[in-house]
Amino acid sequence: MLTIQVQMALKKTFFVQNIKPKTIFTIFLWLMVAWALSKPLQEIGKTIYSSVGTLANNAFELVTHGKSITEELITSKKIANEQEKEISLLKTKIDYLENQNSHITQLKELLNLKKSTRYKTISANVIGRSPDNWHKQIIIDKGKNEGVKSGDSVITTKGIVGQVIETNNNTSTIQLISDPSYKLGCKIKKRNILGILSGRTNSTGLLNFIPIGTKVKTGDLVETSGIASGGFAPTYPPGHPVGKIRKTSKKKSKASDLYIEVKFSEDLNSLNNVLIFSPD
What we know:
By secondary structure, the chain is of the alpha+beta class. It is built from two helices and twelve strands; from the N terminus they run ααββββββββββββ. The longest helix is centred in the first third of the chain and has 96 residues. The protein is elongated, with a radius of gyration of 50 Å. The N and C termini lie far apart (156 Å).
């Protein structure tokens, strides 16, 4: 056993003795370099660690801030949707009030017209249109029980609407002046020229039997003639508005007459309240 230990000691001594000085110097030099670089590397490590920590902290703050912004956007959108609903509801209420106000204004105007005429008049509401003649006929809520008769004229404060063609106990059917088969005696107000109006579209009619050479201009007012015959009262109140001349030209088929297009004073698409004019 002692011999083995002696041999190992001799081998170590022999190994140290066999190391060259150059190798020892190289090892020493590398140790010095490692020692010299250890502090800067530590500082670099600290800097990297600090930078990574800052980046991580900033990233966390950005995520947190982004989440906060997203939540705020969601909340703002909900508030905007609620406000939009409120605005829509308010608009609906405003439209309703405006319609009510328009309705009341029409009723007041009809009442004033009713007071100003010396003939019998009956107020009525438009309750529908004829399915078979949607743009040519309307239905009102007054009939035989209220004294409405076939032949009575129907007017508003703005203009002529049409004429009663059928009556029931509580309703009546009105033929509109827009119906091409309906004829209405009219005159051009400023010129005092007589003609016959027939329907063309739901907003325009044609004034016939006006000779070429007649001084007629666009914008001239057309009104009811108020002419009666045989001692009877006129079918329509005289001088009531019918419309304005919108277009004039020569007829191709009939050289003796002018083609005169009249725009109705009353909007026949949005009738609500009317007045029945009875000459009896």
